[in-house]
Amino acid sequence: IDTFRPFPHLNSGAINLILNVKEKDGISFAIVEIPRVVNRLIKLPGGNNFILLEEVIKNNLHRLFNGYEIIDIGYFRITRDEDLGIDENSGAEDLLVEIEKEVKNRKWGNPVRVEYIRGVSNKSLEFLKEQIELEEENFYPVLGPLDLTFLWGMVDVDGVEELKFEKNIPRYYKELAGENIFKVLSKRNILLRHPFESFDHVVDLVKISAQDPKVLAIKQTLYRVSGDSPIIKYLKKAAENGKQVTVLVELKARFDEERNVKWARELEEAGCHVIYGLSGLKTHAKCLLIIRKEEDGIKRYVHLGTGNYNDSTAKLYVDYSFFTMDEEMGIDASYLFNKLTGFSKIDDWKKLIVAPTHLRDTLYRFIDREIENISKGGLGKVVIKVNGLTDQGIIEKLYDASKAGVEVTLIVRGACCLKTGIAGLSENIKVYSLVGRFLEHDRIYYFENNGEEELYLGSADCMRRNLDG
């Protein structure tokens, strides 16, 4: 790096080598990016022995820097701000174009973090701070290799079967196959837990609805779907078969923006009515509504999920699927889609609790009810399972419940800003985090309600962005 060879653009997430090299004119710095088009994990001959690509390159740098003396070598990578700056007030087609443009510009986002392996020289660190223009607090030393995603490449190694989980085979119910699911739902609701019970039942519901001549319309929200989504395939088929298909594709699903733009265009070309939600909000709800003409009239079938309509992650994430023909639930689902398409201002929900208009106030009311029950000598208990608990308002309300004597159990997979065991504040609160083979993704809200227990499933965490938009 010198006057004629300036400091290079560093790609977000890419691993780099920083070198001190000596030549006759003095000491210089050099940067070598580890290419991502080559497998990083290299299997060596004989047995299960591996080496990382960056180690191979490091040990052959003398060939690249022929004639230089290499004094010092270190590893680092940067993370860039990859939030998109989108004008949501532009038209639908403009929004698609805007997102495509912003995704391409993502690689030019400002650096926000530098990770480096301990042992990088102070001289190299000072040089990086000067060139990247980040304060020392944004530099993080790491023990061991940077970016551990290479470990996925070791999952299928031979000879270590005792270290592997047995293959999970989700239970598939034949009585729910094909049109049978409509007959079953006319008699009872269905609750499935993935990945222990097959997500294929969700895919099959869309598939059979696309083919069923009695189905008039399909409405669905899509937040994240797989790269080769069968649900997209069947929604397109439904439109081709003359069904009225309305799909809300959330274009602002973080890091899925480019893929969702692609799906939106494909669905539109197939004849689906594609919408992008409400300005200023992400649509995180997982809802499928099927409208079917039967002998005794028009019926609504609803699927609600705690997880995405993603057949790939459904094999790895713990989530619930709820299928119902409940009339009030069907009316609520219709209201939801009418609201999302901009044709309804109704907020008279029967059974759904919808953010940002109702969820926070409803949770407050439910927690206050437990407090009141305890104050009257009754039963009061709250159990909440979420991915994150960071909202100050919910935390304060749970503290109030604890102070009143309500037993509070929280199962939080990720960030939790609530403190337990503080006398006079949170001694009645217990917090757990489940870490196992599958990623805990479901959200569950339980309230004892003085013996008349209530249980709610949802896709919302106790985070401000989920509660208030």
Give a written overview of the molecule:
By secondary structure, the chain is α/β, with parallel strands linked by helices. It has 3 domains: 16-84 and 109-154, polyphosphate kinase like (2-Layer Sandwich); 174-340, Endonuclease Chain A (Endonuclease, Chain A, 2-Layer Sandwich), CATH 3.30.870.10; 359-468, Endonuclease Chain A (Endonuclease, Chain A, 2-Layer Sandwich), CATH 3.30.870.10. It contains 12 helices and 20 strands. The chain has helices at 53-58, 61-64, 92-105, 122-132, 180-185, 200-211, 230-240, 257-269, 327-340, 359-375, 392-403, 464-468; strands at residues 16-23, 26-33, 41-43, 50-52, 69-80, 111-117, 139-142, 190-194, 215-222, 244-249, 273-275, 287-294, 297-305, 317-324, 381-386, 407-412, 429-432, 439-440, 443-447, 454-458. The protein is globular and about 90 Å long.
Feature tags:
polyphosphate kinase like; single chain; 5-stranded mixed β-sheet; 469 residues; 26% strand; Endonuclease, Chain A; phosphoprotein; kinase; 12 helices; 3 domains; transferase; EC 2.7.4.1; alpha/beta
Quick recap of the structure?
This protein folds into 3 domains: 16-84 and 109-154, polyphosphate kinase like, CATH 3.30.1840.10; 174-340, 2-Layer Sandwich (Endonuclease, Chain A), CATH 3.30.870; 359-468, Endonuclease Chain A (Endonuclease, Chain A, 2-Layer Sandwich). Helix content is 27%, strand content 26%.
